[in-house]
Amino acid sequence: MNQLLHGTCYYPELWPEADIDRDIAEMKRLGLNMVRIGEFTWSKMEPDEGQVSVDFFVRVLDRLHAARIGVVYCTPTPTPPVWLTHGRPDRCFVDAEGRVMSHGARQHASYEHPEVRAACLRIVETLAQAVGRHPAILAWQIDNEFKCHVGEDFNPHAIAHWHRWLEARYGRIDRLNAAWGTEIWSERYQRFDQVPPPVRTPFLHNASLSTAYRMFCRESIAEFQDAQCAVIRRHSDKPITHNTVTFFSVNHERQFANLDFASFDDYPDRDHWAAIVFDNDLCRPAKPGRAHWFMETSVAHNGWFGNHEIAHPPGFLAVEAVASFGLGAQAINYWLWRQQRTGCELPHSAIMSTWFKPSIGYAEVAKVEAARRQIEPLMVASRPAIAEAAVTWSDLGRAMLQTEPLGGRPGYEVDFNQTVAAWHGLLLEAGIHRDVRFEGAALDGLKLLITPMMPYVSPAFLAKVEKFVRAGGVWICAPTTGTRGAEHDVPTDAGLGLVDAFAGVETVFSFPITGTGSTGRAFGLTAPVAGWCSALRPASRDTKVIGTLQSEQAPGLAFLTERKLGQGAVVVLGALPDGKAGAKLLAKLVAHYAKQAGITLRFETTPGTIICPRVTKDGKKLWVVVNLDGKGGRVRVPKGATDALTGKKLPAGPLKVPRYRWRVVGIGYL
């Protein structure tokens, strides 16, 4: 990384070509050094089938390059033109209710249809051939926000692909029947083409089938992305990414596997600033050694028909950007440059209004640019510190919880994303530098690993964790983890599958504990417990009870155990402490095991103010200190700290950070 990028999504095809020079001049005045273009331009490039021209976009690239503004070029596959699908409902996306999508928005075509997929790859090939070596291009983006508006595809071609996928996975139908236990309710299949997708049925489909279909669809969209990558790489050596959002119906680990770097979109308002930290902490370790990009956010407020978010307070955008840069992002990019005059997102903020005057967000973008120029030399000369604590992200676990939200009921919903974010929030509130690491990621550098809501714990994952624990790590196996098998079935050998023996416990009961009046006591605190409960008893001499249930259903059984293993420990949390008292207990649990694990990257900060630790090549430390909650805060700095921008010595002790402000602190520079 030799620079920080500051840019905007640009749609010159929506405006007179004569406006382009004026746009570029204004971008230069603001200091923007990149734009993203192209994701919705298929009909501009190919207004009629086979009549393709990219001349307009080459002219745009030429002008941007002359102005020294780099370009992220997107493939235009999210918005196929009308000629591809008009009068051809067989080419369109079909939802689980059998409803066929129509032209008029985006993501309406079925990428499973062979003619649609072939047309997509043809336009990508034409584009890559034409501009793949253009000097303006910094990077490529595949499509735009896969599965933003749709979930699983039930087009007949998707279902046929599903049958082929099942045959490739199981080989013989009797293996599928055995794995899914299809003797139940006479579900037994004779051939793969008899296996239905999870469309409407009188009650519910087998959990194994529903989860498998989710994973099939997520694999298929990743394969579609891979095919586009292969086409581009034949004509361009620029890196490729995709802009994902964590709650879309994709397998994020698989999606990133064949990309060169990770990027994400997020539109947090002032009350959801923690989402910025979470997304950066997820994307930073996703592609080790490569900086990630923050590809879309709003300059003032998000908006579409019927809804607009709260406008950002002054200063929020700048700290959103500085925190992202501090946490490892190379770029921040806004949607969008000029407010749209037509379409369905008319209320959305932009840098320039439709009448080409500075918007309410213009001055805030200028603040980001001033901050970027100040911190760029420091960010380029350093890298994020390696986290010592992490929360596990399991895409299979997420799919299983979408099929079966264990512990959920009306009034107590269970959501994978929210639960993982809550555990991440506990580390954040404790001042611990942290990652969100994919299930398949290495555990290098970690001392503490928390794995929530991963129903299936595979032998490969457990082997990796055992090596980590024996070397001194602490693994917290959080509620619902281990409760299901690989095929979304219930383990028959132990309540937590392989975890029971590894943790030296016996799962006595497995049941929903919400609403039973049960409490748990640990670390001298008592709190209600909720969600899905695995009530435990020690099954090994080196396993001790840390927390006990007070419950009519499971009196005296454990909900928190610890087993020493090698130099480390295995901790099982069998039920989730709930409410305000539960939050205190969980904070105590995190603090206790962070200390036991020997966490050193832990900082004393007030809530809403974070430290992004970084390290220079010669081992010096930088802290990017940011107040994100708008309340101002303090951090404690050690002796010998300096203001890294001015070189001024800072006194040891509390350092105040005003509302929506930031500092860069040098540690060990004297």
From TrEMBL:
Pfam families: Glyco_hydro_42 (PF02449), Glyco_hydro_42C (PF08533), Glyco_hydro_42M (PF08532). It comes from the Bacteria. This is Beta-galactosidase. Residues 614-665 form the Beta-galactosidase C-terminal domain. GO terms for cellular component: beta-galactosidase complex. GO terms for biological process: galactose metabolic process. One of its GO terms (molecular function) is beta-galactosidase activity. It catalyses: Hydrolysis of terminal non-reducing beta-D-galactose residues in beta-D-galactosides.
